[in-house]
Amino acid sequence: MAVGLAACGSSGSGGSPATSASASPAAPKQRVATDNPIAMETLIAVGEKPACSLWASPKYVPLLAKYLDGIIDLGQRVDGTVFNIDALAKCRPDVILMGAEDPDVMTTIGKVGKVVEFVQPNPPISADGSAGSTWRNWLHAAASPVGATEKAHAITATVDLQEGALKGLLRGKSLAVVETESTSAYEVVNKYLPLAWTYVRDLGIENYQATAADYDAGCLDDKKPKPCYSTDLSMETLPALSGVDGVLVQSAGMSSSDLDVFKANPLFANLPAVKSGHVSVAKSFTDTGPIGVSFLLDEIADAFHVKEFHAALGSGGRAHLAVDPAANKLCWSVSPTPGTSKPDGTIKIAAGGTTVKLADKATFAPAETEYQTTPPTVFSTGCAPVAPKLAQALMASPADAKLTAVGGSGSLVPGAASVVVG
């Protein structure tokens, strides 16, 4: 299975982020060290880049490569002390944001800087006993100690905007995560692994799971949710995936030549989803920090041949569009500036010499999340068929297209808006 760098952390319950009772939130702009890639990624996204961190190398977190300048790499985890204590001391951290450890270990590390516990329930369990949003909980658990809660809310709203449009096209589809173990073996994930829980909970996609016999005991028990990989499965079992609509392939730890052998195996290559091109391949999708979640959503959209666009509207509003060019269907998610009273409910798209009114009296509501900006961010989502000419114009020249909504208008930019707000 993939090395769970981005999925490490305690597995307790609790629906909201917390810090240890003995440590108060750290002041912004202090020198922060962390032992956790999710915390490091969150600090980058909210503009509080840590001074040093474990795993701060493109070798371990390639998705963060362009953000790592200025972060001292403390190497890998050290048994018994977590950090190389001498290297940590040279970093001179004011605050050390880390997962729970043995009290003696925490005391040793606490001699270097103030320790703030990074609590990562996996998944978080809400008051009603249901599983909450893992990535949102982790985002806020890491942002809160550095005084960046409002920035974390803004990041949440950006992802909510993207998901609002994608959900209209992807809800009800099925997806399998295939972790390549060798040229002749693979694993699949249960729905509570953070990467799968993101698309199951947020997009309404069904996660493919193997039989209970292929997992450790309790992995398919919804009454006690826990994240799991299956045991190693032989290639002969791949036909069980024939009914899935799309496949994500994780190839961490496998050479490109071995991956080619795996993909060329007829048992994989002849899966209907693979033959239709509904596949996305990456070293790992397990990074469920804010940057990783946005990447995951982009890759899922790509696997299903959905094209994404975002727009900044002249009124201060924002929009995300998802287009299925094969089905000539467009879904949107628009949001006015938080606090806007009675936003304009007219939504129009102009492209290729054609203007289409998508909505005349759009209604707006907050996203279904406990993490909310102040004032609240509200959204309007919907889908509509569009003429092939308009869909083709959007694909060919998005910069020439114009979306009008919430009292403003703007050109389309391919892809999703950045979640790095700092």
Supply the key terms.
alpha/beta, six-stranded antiparallel beta sheet, Immunoglobulin-like, Rossmann fold, six-stranded mixed beta sheet, globular, 422 residues, 21 strands, disordered N terminus, 3 domains
Write up what this structure looks like.
By secondary structure, this protein is an alpha/beta fold. It has three domains: 5-157, Rossmann fold (3-Layer(aba) Sandwich); 168-303, Rossmann fold (3-Layer(aba) Sandwich); 306-414, Immunoglobulin-like (Sandwich), CATH 2.60.40. It is 25% helix and 22% strand. It has eleven helices and 21 strands. The protein is globular. The model is unreliable at 1-23 (pLDDT under 50).
Overall mean confidence score, pLDDT: 93
Major sheet attributes: 6 strands, mixed
End-to-end separation: 33 Å
CATH architecture of the largest domain: 3-Layer(aba) Sandwich
Concise account of the structure shown:
One of its GO terms (cellular component) is outer membrane-bounded periplasmic space. The chain has helices at 37-45, 85-91, 103-110, 134-143, 149-170, 194-203, 256-264, 266-269, 272-275, 290-303, 388-396, and strands spanning 32-34, 52-53, 72-73, 95-98, 114-117, 174-182, 185-188, 206-207, 233-234, 246-250, 279-282, 307-312, 318-324, 329-335, 347-351, 354-359, 365-366, 378-385, 402-405, 408-411, 413-414.
Write the layout of secondary structure elements.
Layout: E1 32-34, H1 37-45, E2 52-53, E3 72-73, H2 85-91, E4 95-98, H3 103-110, E5 114-117, H4 134-143, H5 149-170, E6 174-182, E7 185-188, H6 194-203, E8 206-207, E9 233-234, E10 246-250, H7 256-264, H8 266-269, H9 272-275, E11 279-282, H10 290-303, E12 307-312, E13 318-324, E14 329-335, E15 347-351, E16 354-359, E17 365-366, E18 378-385, H11 388-396, E19 402-405, E20 408-411, E21 413-414
Parallel strand pairs: 1-2, 1-4, 2-3, 4-5, 6-8, 6-10, 10-11
Antiparallel strand pairs: 6-7, 7-9, 12-13, 12-21, 13-14, 14-18, 15-16, 15-19, 17-18, 19-20
